[in-house]
Amino acid sequence: MYALSLMPDDVNKFGSRSRLVIIAAQRAQQLMKGIPSTIVTKHTKPTTIALEEVLNDKVKFVIGKQAREALKDAKKQRALDLARLTLDRVGPADAIEIKKDLSVVVDDSPKPEPAPSAEGEW
Prior knowledge:
Elements: H1 2-6, H2 17-32, H3 46-55, H4 65-90, H5 92-102
């Protein structure tokens, strides 16, 4: 319940209380994954620590178009990281074969029927 007392009455810099909660929740997920806190606090729960960090301007966040671009960049980076991990595990020769196999395009579009030839057909 102490976390509720941290909530400011004026949330204009966040746009809304909902955005503040979303930002704090995402930061709490990071804390639970092992990313260290940016502040020294008496709190032990990740959600309360995250909320305190957000309210003390220790967490940077973006909104709108910048947020969409950041998500796209993060997805690209995760794909690159996954490819790098795969390459480390299977070796370069196997990775080349896997890439060839995955780059095969299957054409399952309907084929046009051949035109009847004039030769010998009645």
